[in-house]
Amino acid sequence: MVERQTEPAGQEYDATPFLPRRGGLPAYRRAAARCQGCPLFREASGTVFGAGDTSARIMIVGEQPGDQEDRAGEPFVGPAGRLLREALHEAGIVESQAYFTNAVKHFKFEVAGRGKRRIHKPPSLREMSACRPWLSAELRLVDPELVVALGATAGKALLGASFRVTKDRGALLPLPQDEHQPAGRAGGMVVATLHPSAVLRSDERETAYAGLVSDLRVAADALG
């Protein structure tokens, strides 16, 4: 049996009231821990904010925390994160010089089986939109030259609802701005690719992994 999280009809989702009025990333991290901008905070263990080099030239954006990330309170610490780090190394991107975060800061899941295993569930457009102010703040404060979008959710959060991984991956695209994110570095760019979890699920894992590395090399080459 699967227990499903549901969205109350008509309820407005927005993290904006929980953002601090001033301060750097530490202030935003503390404020995000108290975010109730959408119902996901009720079931997750806590907020998983971004981590890494706070003046990074490259920002890695995933979908949302997974089960292990939710328990640890850190992004990309599970199997997909380990595979991502291997791919970054192979592509020539130095992990310690990157900033890692997710489009949605709480783990969305459904509980299945007698063992109560928590199964990842994709966030909705309303949840993505609610969480966008946190991502915009990270983009503004880190001010990266280039962003890597991992998977459809991150791509839509950064590039809009028309984004498709199969169509837009591996291309160097301009980073749009929004009302939460005043223009930072001139010429900020995005490269989209598969999420590492999709590589792990693929029946042709070697091919999928090679594609991930190839897309990351586009990002590495853009940074020179």
From TrEMBL:
Listed GO MF terms: 4 iron, 4 sulfur cluster binding; deaminated base DNA N-glycosylase activity; metal ion binding
Keywords, comma-separated and alphabetical: 4Fe-4S, DNA damage, DNA repair, Hydrolase, Iron, Iron-sulfur, Metal-binding
One Pfam family in the UniProt entry: UDG
Gene3D superfamilies the record matches: Uracil-DNA glycosylase-like domain (3.40.470.10)
InterPro entries: UDG_Type-4/5 (IPR051536), Ura-DNA_glyco_family4 (IPR005273), Uracil-DNA_glycosylase-like (IPR005122), Uracil-DNA_glycosylase-like_sf (IPR036895)
Domain Uracil-DNA glycosylase-like: 49-217
GO biological process: DNA repair
Keyword DNA damage part of the UniProt annotation: yes
NCBIfam families for the chain: UDG_fam_dom
Family per record: Belongs to the uracil-DNA glycosylase (UDG) superfamily. Type 4 (UDGa) family.
Name of the protein described by the UniProt record: Type-4 uracil-DNA glycosylase
Originating organism: Streptomyces auratus AGR0001
